[in-house]
UniProtKB/TrEMBL annotation:
GO terms for biological process: anaerobic respiration; denitrification pathway. The chain crosses the membrane at residues 21-45. This is Cytochrome c-type protein. Heme 4 binds at C173, C176, H177. Heme 3 binds at C141, C144, H145. Binds 4 heme groups per subunit. Its cofactor is heme. Belongs to the NapC/NirT/NrfH family. Heme 2 binds at C85, H86, H182. One of its GO terms (molecular function) is electron transfer activity. Gene3D superfamilies: Di-heme elbow motif domain. Residues 26-184 form the NapC/NirT cytochrome c N-terminal domain. InterPro entries: Cytochrome_c-type_ET, Multihaem_cyt_sf, NapC/NirT/NrfH, NapC/NirT_cyt_c_N, NapC/NirT_cytc_sf. The lineage of its organism: Bacteria, Pseudomonadati, Pseudomonadota, Gammaproteobacteria, Alteromonadales.
Amino acid sequence: MNKKGETTRWQRLWSWLKRPLALGIPIGMFLLVLVGTSFQAMMVVSNQNEFCFSCHLTMDTIVQEYQASSHFGDGEDIPATCSDCHVPHPFIDKMIVKTIALKDVYHMIAGTITKENFEEHRPAMAESVWKAFKKNDSANCRHCHQGENFDLAKQPQRARLNHEKIEARGETCIDCHQGLTHNRIVVR
């Protein structure tokens, strides 16, 4: 208030701003929680095998190959999900892969990759996945296959000897284990 008892322009402005702030802060917090919860729910849903199968089951043989592999599980072992192998665990890398994967959804919707032509495109797609594994030193493999899950002493002699030399040879898991979960693809 000024000397005459009147409110100043700044005081009137502040009293006007306080009303929307009083309502805006709780609404903003609610929206922030809603967006965060929705984002997390989408991350969980898109990491489920059912999400991956929703396209791949009708489009190609990848699901059947995975279900026939040791990574699918036998009821005793804990299976590796599609995202365990194909989606990086660090957050930023995960977001990059999920953003890039939107092109797969586009190609499915646009019909450029179909069940009929999938095998033609498969070598290039497999090569892309192998390069990513090679680039990050098979980080997703190593996420699970460590400690008790990768005890060299429990491996057959040939496997143990090869695993002991892998680093010296400049190799990573995918160099030897292409075709472990999905059929080995011949890249021309």
